[in-house]
Write a structure and sequence with these properties.
Blueprint: H1 2-8, H2 11-33, H3 42-63, H4 68-97, H5 116-119, H6 121-124, H7 142-169
């Protein structure tokens, strides 16, 4: 665990996270604008917004990696963003399975103070119906893939967070 924490203090850790999240966004955009022409639903663009927030805060961690307090803030905010993305993905999974009755509308559902779907429609405009995510390789749907690809980095960040708290309590920082 100490090796993981030491790695988290490096720019490579944060750069790896940023690249991973950018790859996730790229895959989503490929499925939206690529040959399949899948149109994302409101829940899917909300997950995209959460992931974009994660990218922004991971970039903060990358730039401010030498400052313990900025790194701590970036870690916490990235965890919150990924947890929001995972929660929304889990909800979308319930809609896909039919276990959650949703009133998912054609609008993206962003608040009035931050209408991302109007500001950047290329990334955040919801044009599809909830519950119809495309098939991905290995027989998973996109929502099932999101549950896996969001859980893995979130678990790593939580482990780093626990190590960070342990070091703060023992005054090793």
């Amino acid at each position: 665990m100490n090796k993981l924490y030491n790695f988290a203090e490096s720019r490579y850790f944060w750069l790896t996270g940023v690249l991973y999240l950018v790859l996730m966004e790229g895959i989503a955009l490929f499925y939206q604008y690529g040959p399949g022409m899948w149109y994302p639903c409101a829940l899917c663009v909300q997950v995209r917004a959460w992931v974009m927030g994660s990218i922004i805060f991971a970039l903060l961690g990358l730039v401010m990696v030498k400052s313990i307090w900025w790194r701590w803030m970036a870690l916490n905010l990235t965890i919150v963003m990924l947890a929001g993305a995972l929660y929304t993905s889990y909800y979308a999974y319930g809609v896909e399975l039919g276990t959650v009755v949703s009133s998912c509308t054609m609008g993206a559902g962003f608040p009035e103070f931050m209408p991302l779907d109007r500001w950047i429609p290329l990334l955040f405009e919801a044009q599809g119906i909830c519950g119809l995510s495309p098939d991905m390789p290995l027989g998973f749907t996109m929502v099932e893939s999101l549950l896996i690809t969001l859980s893995a980095p979130l678990l790593v960040l939580i482990a780093v967070w626990i190590m960070h708290v342990r070091k703060m309590i023992s005054n090793e920082i």
